[in-house]
């Protein structure tokens, strides 16, 4: 069964994500298309600033700013990509999405920014993203079809998140269809938590402004309790995590009537 163009462009990006570099010949072999089609697809993706063309192929989109070490080290962790894809599946085209900072939220922004239905040129925004993370805003600024709204605030240098009362002023004015809240710990009894009380305040407000608020956390964060709590579990609509969650941990969340989506 042949792929349509949108599916093929998404498949090219998936191939590129495997190693960060792609030759025209790889596309011909893996996707069974002609050389002319492969080159045209690469040119299309380059025009959308989703990759950088090289002689005979392409490399992943280079980023013009330097991310802190934890982003470089973790950015393509497979479990975060899984979580990001599961999160993306909850987002309808045209939705208003809240993204707080952190490596998992950054992965969600990448997956959303590469989605064929969102990448389509359109006179209206195909997605609105409200974020307090400077790196996510810079990443999405290259997507003219995505409306990117940045909260104000003071930059937290470790996480690139904007925190403080200026952030509150913007968040009080907006309504989100869905928010994805990254955390440093989530415990079935203690609830979610982060390392910094200023980040906790922004994350809590983003949660309040969303019709649906999902915690996104890889399984290493489960049963961890960080410094600043985000309130009880029932404030949130569920957790998206990876298959590393244990049956015992799943049962503990079920005891709290809390939905867990395991990203396969």
Q: Give the overall form.
A: globular
CATH architecture group name of the largest domain: 3-Layer(aba) Sandwich
The largest sheet, given as strand count, sense and whether it forms a barrel, is: 7 strands, parallel
The proportion of residues forming helix, as a percent range, comes to: 25-40%
Please tell me about this protein's structure.
The chain is α/β, with parallel strands linked by helices and 264 residues long. It folds into 2 domains: 5-60, Arc Repressor Mutant, subunit A, CATH 1.10.10; 69-262, 3-Layer(aba) Sandwich (Rossmann fold), CATH 3.40.50. The protein has helices at residues 5-19, 24-31, 35-47, 69-74, 78-88, 103-113, 116-119, 134-140, 165-171, 197-208, 247-255; strands spanning 21-23, 51-54, 57-60, 96-99, 127-131, 146-150, 154-156, 161-163, 176-182, 185-187, 191-194, 210-216, 228-229, 238-241, 260-262. Strands 6-5-4-9-12-14-15 form a 7-stranded parallel beta sheet, sandwiched between helices. The protein has a 3-stranded antiparallel beta sheet with strand order 1-3-2. It has a 3-stranded antiparallel beta sheet with strand order 10-11-13, covered by helices on one side.
């Amino acid at each position: 069964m042949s792929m349509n163009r949108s599916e093929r462009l998404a498949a090219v990006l998936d191939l590129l994500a495997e190693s960060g570099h792609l030759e025209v010949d790889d596309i011909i072999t893996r996707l069974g298309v002609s050389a002319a089609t492969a080159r045209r697809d690469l040119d299309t993706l380059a025009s959308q600033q989703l990759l950088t063309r090289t002689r005979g192929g392409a490399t992943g989109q280079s980023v013009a700013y330097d991310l802190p070490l934890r982003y470089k080290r973790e950015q393509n962790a497979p479990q975060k990509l899984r979580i990001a894809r599961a999160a993306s599946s909850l987002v309808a085209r045209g939705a208003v999405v809240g993204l707080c900072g952190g490596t998992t939220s950054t992965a969600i922004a990448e997956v959303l920014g590469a989605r064929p239905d969102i990448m389509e040129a359109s006179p209206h925004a195909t997605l609105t993203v409200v974020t307090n993370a400077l790196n996510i805003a810079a990443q999405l600024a290259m997507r003219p079809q995505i409306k990117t709204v940045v909260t104000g605030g003071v930059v937290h240098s470790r996480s690139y998140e904007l925190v403080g009362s200026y952030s509150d002023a913007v968040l009080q004015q907006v309504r989100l269809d869905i928010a994805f809240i990254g955390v440093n710990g989530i415990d079935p009894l203690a609830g979610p938590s982060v390392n910094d009380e200023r980040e906790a305040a922004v994350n809590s407000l983003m949660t309040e402004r969303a019709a649906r608020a999902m915690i996104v956390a890889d399984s290493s964060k489960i049963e961890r309790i960080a410094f600043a709590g985000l309130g009880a579990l029932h404030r949130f609509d569920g957790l998206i995590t990876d298959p590393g969650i244990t049956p015992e941990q799943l049962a503990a969340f079920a005891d709290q009537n809390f939905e867990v989506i395991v990203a396969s």
